[in-house]
Amino acid sequence: MCLRCNAMTGLSSRSKPHIPRVIRGLPALRFALARWQARRHKIALVPTMGALHAGHLALVRLAQRRADRVIVSIFVNPTQFAPNEDLTTYPRTFAADIAALTALRADLVWAPSAETMYPSGFATRVVPEGPGTAGLEDAFRPHFFTGVATVVAKLLIQCQPDFAVFGEKDYQQLKVVTRLARDLGLKTRIVGAPTVREKDGLALSSRNAYLSPGEREAAPALHRALADGAKKIAAETPIAAALEEARASVERAGFTLDYLEARHADTLQPAGSYKEGPLRLLVAARIGKTRLIDNVAI
Questions:
Q1: Which of 62, 78, 163, 221 could disulfide-pair with 253, CB 3.0 to 4.6 Å?
Q2: Domain span at 177
Q3: 122 to 83, 156, 191: CA distances (angstroms)
């Protein structure tokens, strides 16, 4: 439509919807990247598994502040799900995701198939150590970080971003991918974004959709326990005592704990004293059939 026609209809090029280009194949992705790189555009990547919520959209906004072009990847990665986990029931809302990204004027959606990411004969895995073997998520989901590290390495190589934005809610994952980019000598800078929460403190997560009304009402107890524990530790309550109180509080709310730990914020090694900081409290717990994770800085 010409600008004159826009004027006649009361529309402008600025007000028209900016529908992000959806790319599913590597040749088209490489062509788009080459055009941006020829113009010396800074590129940011926001990796997601779709089912986008306000937390994901906050990552996109942060990426837009740092880069000229923003790619959002949508790929439900099968290699980070164990056979007993929720791959088949994981929420998939692609049309709604594109609508949300259109409203934000994202530039490109990289939505490869499993066959594109893991073609026949695929035989390479990235197995992280360091923060990936801290005895937190890895202790309960031993397959998880190999799946995450492998797919993130592929996404960073495919999309060649200057920045990649990850939420702090998945704090151990953030540390794993930060180390991965550094150890593999990739050009991408990993940027952490603060956790987005509901008004009652519950961290936004695609898995919150699994919560029953009663479970949703109880779920904010997870964050309250972390916040109270962090406050006690900052006041130099012995860490062991603060953790014991926080764990009891979570269990009273109806959760079954996997872990609630105080760790050094950079190395994720166990912390014995507030003075060993900076510290982070991290938790994973189940309520009903839903497993939630969260963390807070101390």
A1: 221
A2: 14-193
A3: 19, 18, 29
Active site residue 53: no
Residue 1 forms part of a structural domain: no
Task: Report pLDDT digits (tens) over 209-234.
Answer: 999 999 999 999 999 999 999 999 99
- Are 141 and 53 members of one domain? yes
Domain count, the chain: 2
Q: Are residues 101 and 43 in the same domain?
A: yes
pLDDT at residue 4 above 70? Answer: no
Structural contact between residues 19 and 102, judged by C-beta atoms closer than 8 angstroms: yes
Is residue 60 within a helix (H) or strand (E), and if so which, with residue range? helix 54-66
User: Would you tell me the crossing angle of helices 221-234 and 239-252 to the nearest 10 degrees?
Assistant: 170
Same domain, 227 and 122: no
Active-site residue (options: 41, 53, 56, 143): 56
What is the helix (H) or strand (E) element at residue 246, kind and residue range? helix 239-252
